[in-house]
Amino acid sequence: MSQATVSSGHQRFLWMLAILWGATLLPYLSPHYSFGWDSSQFDRAVTDFDIARHQPHPPGYPLWVVALRGLAPILGNPNTAQVVVALLFTLAGLWFFRALARDLLGERAAWPATLLVAFSPLICLYASSSQVYAVDFFVSCFAGWVTRELGLGRTQRAVPSLAVVALAAGFRPSGVVFLFPLLGIGLWQCCRKQPGRAVMGILAGAACWLAWLTPTALLSGGFGALAALNHDQVQRSFSKTSVLYSAPAIVHLHMAIDVCVYFAVAIAGFLPALAAALWPRDRRVVDEPARSGPSWATPTFFALWMAPNLALIYLFHCSQPGYLLLSLPPLFLLLAWLARHTIGDLRLAAAGIAVALLVGHFPYERFMDPAQTTLPFVVLRATPRISGLVEASQREIRSLIDAMPGRPEEKLVFCLLRRFEAPNIRTVTYDFPDVAWADLGGPGLRVFLPGQDVPLSRPSASVRSVGLVCDGAGLPATVRAQFPGAQRVAGNQLFSFWTVAWSADSRN
Q: Is the overall model pTM greater than 0.90, yes or no?
C-alpha cells in the first residue's frame, strides 16, 4: 500500500471522527430553557443589562451579552444563542490547540490529539450548553499560541493578537487575567527583538479593553461602582469555598476533591494512548518529534500557563467544572507529549474517543443519592449528559405547571432547589414567567409575581393552585410540616414536583 493511500485513509478516518463529534453535540444545540443560575442571568441581560441586579453578575461580560442580543432574534431565544457562541469559541480554541499540537507532536499526531481534546467530556459540555466558560478554553489556547509565536520572533503578531485577547476579555474578563503571566513571556521576548511592536501591542490591547470596559462602567455608575461590585462578588465567592476567606475546612476539602474529579473526567480520552505509551512491549513510534521538543515548550512556559488558574481552583474558588478550562489546554498538550509515541495510532485514538464518549454519556443519575451530593453527581455535572437531563427536566416542569388547575395568574409554585443547575429560583422565574414563584431560602417568604423582579412577602389573593419543586429525594421535613397534604406527582433523580391543596388560611 502506498504512502499516499495511507495518508488518504488516515484523513478520511479523522473526518469521520470529526463528523461523529458534531453528531454527539447536535441534540444539545437548541435548548429552550436556562442551563443554570448564570445562564438565566445572561438571558435577563439581553433585554435589561444591569450588573448591580446580577443581569449578568459582575464583572458584566458585556461582549457576551452583545453577541446574545444580536443572535437571539435570529435563533429564537437567548439560550440557543449562548450555545452557538460557546460552540464557536470552542471551534476556534481547537484550531489554535491543533497549531500548538502540530509543532509539539508532528502533523500526523496533531489531529488525533486535537480530536481527543474535542471529545473530552468537559469540552463537549461547555461547547453545547448555555454557559460562558468556552471563552476560557479559547483564550487559553490562543494565549499559548500567541506566546509561542512571539517567542519564535514573529513580532508582527503582537498588535492583532493582544487586541484579540483584550476583546476576548470582554466576553469573560476574569479568565483572561489568569493568563497575564504567560502572555508576559511572549511580550518580554517580543520586547527584546522589536520593542516598538511590543509597545504597540500593549497599547492596542489597552485600547480594545477600554472600548468595552468604559461603557460597562458607565452603565454601572462609574469605574468605582463597577470595582466595588467586582470586589463584593469576589469576596462572597471566596468566602463560600476557601479556608483563606473563613469558609469551613470541610467545604474547602470537598471543593479540592471535586476539582480532582473534574480533571479525571476531562482527561479520560487520553488514557488508552497513555497506557500504550507506558507499556514497554507495545510502543508504536509515529512521526516522533525531537526528544527535547520545540524551543517554546519549556517547563516555565507550561508552569506560567497553568499555575495561576490552579492556584485559583485549589486555594480559592471553583464552583463549576468550567473553571478548569484555562488549565486544560496545557494539560492536554503535556499528556499528548507523554503519549507522543502512540497518540498518532488511529486505533488508540478511536479507543480514547470511545472512552470519552462512555464517560461523557454514562447514566450517572441512576446511581445518585438525590438527598445529598455524591460522586455520581459530581461526575455527572462535568459531562454533556447533564445538559440533556436539565433541559428534559425543565420541559417536564413546564407541562406539570400547565396541568395545574386555574389560569396562570392563579398558580403559585415554590422552588426549593439550591444547586447551580436548573431548576432554581433564578432560572424558574425567567423560564416560567407566567406563574408566581415562591422561595423559602431567605429570612422569610419571597413571592415573585409574574413579570415582577421585586419579591413580596405574601402570595396573591388570587392563588388557587399550588405546586412545589424540590430535589429528587422529596420534600424536607420542615416543608412537609407546612404542607402536610402535599402529593408527589412527578420527578426523577434531579427534581420532584408536588401539588398541595390551597386555602385562604395557607396564605398566612
A: yes
